[in-house]
Design brief:
The chain is α+β, with helices and mostly antiparallel strands. It has helices at residues 22-33, 76-84, 98-107; strands at 9-18, 36-43, 48-55, 63-70, 87-95, 118-119, 125-129, 139-143. It binds (S)-Methylmalonyl-Coenzyme A (MC0). (S)-Methylmalonyl-Coenzyme A (MC0) binds next to strand 3, strand 4, helix 2, strand 5 and strand 7.
């Protein structure tokens, strides 16, 4: 297999945690770890209310923890919590060109979930590598919005 060119993966962007109550989780990460709320959004297509908590200096953010609460029982997050309980649901890498990453993975028969990227947090473009093709890890690909 040809490896993905290194410039396409920029950084570990965030780790996603499934939670039952978003406000409670925000308060826990803020009051316990001193993390700051960078962004909060409802994404109906993904079935989530989500909050990005900055790890470290909010003036110079490098990475985030994303708290993901289900919008309703049909949400993938509700299904995840029913099966596993709250906890680590996904890891997200920031990519420079999501279309190129998807083409590379398709060429190596690694399944991504959507034929075209969908709308993610803060106008990013996202897709996911299926956990069954990635050692049990749901890997999100996220290309930041302009
Ligand atoms: C399921 N599996 C996982 C997993 N979810 N493995 C690792 N991590 C996860 N999060 C495994 C199950 O254990 C099972 O394995 C197999 O995959 C099928 O799972 P399932 O419970 O039957 O669930 P499915 O197939 O209905 O759905 C799994 C799938 C789904 C990954 C396709 O969760 C999905 O579409 N996820 C992508 C969208 C998403 O997660 N959206 C929420 C975040 P066994 O061995 O039991 O067969 S939205 C977001 O993140 C946005 C806002 C953003 O950041 O911008």
């Amino acid at each position: 297999m040809t490896a993905l060119p290194t410039h396409l993966f920029e950084a570990l962007d965030h780790v996603g945690i499934a939670v039952t109550d978003l406000d409670e989780a925000i308060a826990f990460y803020r009051d316990t770890y001193g993390m700051t709320l960078a962004h909060e959004e409802t994404n109906p297509e993904q079935g989530v209310r989500e909050a990005m908590m900055t790890v470290g200096d909010p003036e110079h953010p490098h990475s985030h923890i994303q708290l993901l609460a289900p919008l309703d029982e049909s949400s993938t997050i509700a299904k995840f919590i029913d099966k596993n309980g709250p906890g680590l649901q996904q890891m997200a890498v920031r990519v420079t060109d999501i279309d190129a990453v998807m083409a590379h993975l398709a060429a190596h028969d690694i399944r991504v979930l959507y034929p075209e990227p969908k709308k993610g947090t803060a106008h990013s473009r996202i897709n996911f590598v299926h956990p069954k093709d990635a050692g049990g890890v749901l890997l999100e690909l996220t290309q930041p919005g302009k």
